[in-house]
Structure formats: structure tokens, C-alpha cells
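Section 3.1: Structural characterization of target chains.
Under the original work plan, the team committed to producing a structural model for every single-chain target entering the pipeline before any wet-lab resources were allocated. The record below documents one such target. The sequence was received from the expression subgroup and is listed exactly as submitted; it comprises 168 residues.
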Amino acid sequence: MYWFGRPPYVRWVAAGALLMVAVLLEFRPANSVLHPFTAEVIEAGSPLDVEWRKVPEGLFPAPDLAGAVATHVLAAGEPVAPSDVTAAGSLPSGWWQLALEVSFALVPGADVQIVLTESSQTVPAVVVRMGAVDSLRGPVALVAVPAEDAAAVARAVASRSFVVLAAS
């Protein structure tokens, strides 16, 4: 009779060993590292306020936070990625800052050219930070320009006769 045969001991041992290996792999200690997360809402161009949390190693790439500012608005509690930060640009002494409307978002610290359309003059500028998006006009950027060109740029901004060029 078939039901009086020997029990499948080898299969039971193999199944038990497979179960033990699965349990050991599931509950083994994982390597963890500290990663920065935003502590509060951070505006574009603002320095970072972060809290450090343990995450599994290799989950997020590590950003360089030395002297970094946010490239765009970061929500509270989100992990900081390298694309979320950029080095804060240092402005040459004697440069003036002014806000101007741009047609696209710019990265803080980026070098741009402002073309004054009435005189065809180009003025070098550095993006200090991005401001809030105005629902009527569009994004506003705070840029720094050389002191000798500040008055001409201010006139062009007031008359809306300028174009901002950014390198890709």
C-alpha cells in the first residue's frame, strides 16, 4: 500500500534549510548611512536647514552641502538630492542686485547674459536666487550686475526691453 511508504525526509530537510536561509537573509542587519532631509520648507536660493536620518546604504546619492543653496523650492521632510542643491555663488564686490522677470527658472549661482534690446548691449549677470512665481508675469529672479551697468539694466527692466540668456 502506498500510504505506508517511507516519509519524504530529504524533502522536509531541504524545505527547512530553504526556509532558514530565507529567514537569515530577510533579517540580516542592513548597512545604513546618514542622509540629509529638509527640516522645513526651503525657498530657491536659500541655505539648507537639514536633519540627518538613517537610510539604507546606496538608497540616495550623497549631495555636497558645503556652502550649498537650494536650486528650487524644497518641501519639508524630503530627501536632499545632488540636483536639489548648487554651490552658492560669490558675487564680485561692487555688483548690484535687482529683481527681473524671466521666462524660465534659473539656477542660483548661474552665469547669465542680459541683452538690452534698445542698445544691443550685453551685460554679464549672476543669478542670486529665484523668487516666487508671479501669476500675472511669470518667474522673478534676483540677479547681480556690475555697478557700471546697473543703471542701464534698471532702465531696461522698467521699460521691459531686455532678454535674459542662459547657457545650457
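The chain has a mean pLDDT of 85.
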